[in-house]
């Protein structure tokens, strides 16, 4: 079973340009069954990964963009 995990990081904490190799990191993720798991970028080696950057927590852009990415997850497959 495939899991699509959307890992979000603050752009201020990590500056990555498009197509640039991202450094190894880990993050807490919510899985499709609503459980939590700590995932590492290396868990997705040789796979496409979408890194979503957002300005701050609890801003209007956060829920709207994250929900939109979630609703269109199949478009990324």
Summarize the topology.
Blueprint: E1 7-10, E2 26-30, E3 36-40, E4 51-54, H1 61-71
Parallel strand pairs: 1-4
Antiparallel strand pairs: 2-3
**Rg calc:** 13 Å
Q: What is the distance, rounded to the nearest whole angstrom, between the alpha carbons of the first and last residues?
A: 14 Å
Global structural class = alpha+beta
Oligomer classification:
single chain
Task: Report the sheet with the most strands, covering strand number, pairing sense and barrel closure.
Answer: 2 strands, parallel
Helix and strand string, N-terminal first?
Answer: EEEEH
- What is the number of independent domains? 1
Would you tell me the overall average pLDDT? Answer: 75
**What global shape is seen?**
globular
Low confidence ranges = 1-13
Number of strands: 4
Range of helix content: 10-25%
Strand residues, percent: 15-25%
Number of helices: 1
Order of strands, main sheet, comes to 1-4
GO molecular function, one term: thioredoxin peroxidase activity
Signal peptide: 1-15
GO cellular component, one term: cytosol
Domain Alkyl hydroperoxide reductase subunit C/ Thiol specific antioxidant: 20-77
């Amino acid at each position: 079973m495939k899991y699509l995990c959307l890992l979000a990081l603050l752009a201020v904490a990590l500056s990555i340009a498009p197509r640039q190799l991202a450094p190894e990191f880990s993050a807490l993720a919510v899985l499709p069954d609503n459980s939590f798991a700590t995932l590492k970028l290396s868990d997705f080696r040789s796979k496409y990964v979408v890194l979503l950057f957002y300005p701050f927590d609890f801003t209007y852009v956060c829920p709207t963009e994250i929900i939109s990415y979630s609703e269109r997850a199949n478009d990324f497959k």
